[in-house]
Write a structure and sequence with these properties.
By secondary structure, the protein is mostly beta strands. It contains no helices and nine strands. It has one domain. It is about 0% helix and about 55% strand.
């Protein structure tokens, strides 16, 4: 698996798969922990981001990696626009936001909010209701 940065996924893409789940990861020599993950397919490449729950009060998104494992849920090809969540008065963020190109709504958010704060927070949001293909009466192609 090859590590990527979330900011590398800015711009126009085709989203075609999604998967959310839990995996067990080794944290120390004899300590294993269940961790949430989100996997998504952009332009035919599968990416996986795993949450590190840290100490239960803090969490953060570990490295984004490319994986050969396909997503278990295939969706109709959706054109999305990737941007990074802007920093604000509350903190610094490293969160990729994918907007549906037709509806303009956020369909996927992944990363870490408040990375410079005492309580960083892993973000793994999936909003299929915001995809154009799920909008009643919405034309999804020309």
């Amino acid at each position: 698996m090859k590590a990527k940065e979330l900011k590398d996924l800015r711009g126009k893409h085709c989203l075609s798969g999604i998967e959310r789940g839990t995996i067990t990861k080794e944290r120390y020599e004899t300590y294993y922990e269940d961790c949430n993950y989100i996997k998504f397919c952009l332009d035919g490449t599968n990416y996986m981001a795993v949450e590190n729950p840290d100490d239960g009060y803090r969490s953060y998104c570990e490295d984004l990696v490319e994986t050969d494992e396909p997503c278990n849920v295939q969706i109709p090809d959706a054109e999305v626009i990737g941007t990074m969540q802007p920093d604000d008065k509350d903190g610094t963020h490293d969160v990729l936001q994918l907007f549906d190109a037709i509806t303009g709504e956020i369909v996927l958010r992944v990363g870490t909010q408040y990375i410079d704060d005492y309580y960083p927070m892993c973000v793994q949001e999936w909003h299929p209701e915001n995809l154009a293909c799920n909008q009643k009466g919405m034309k999804t192609s020309d």
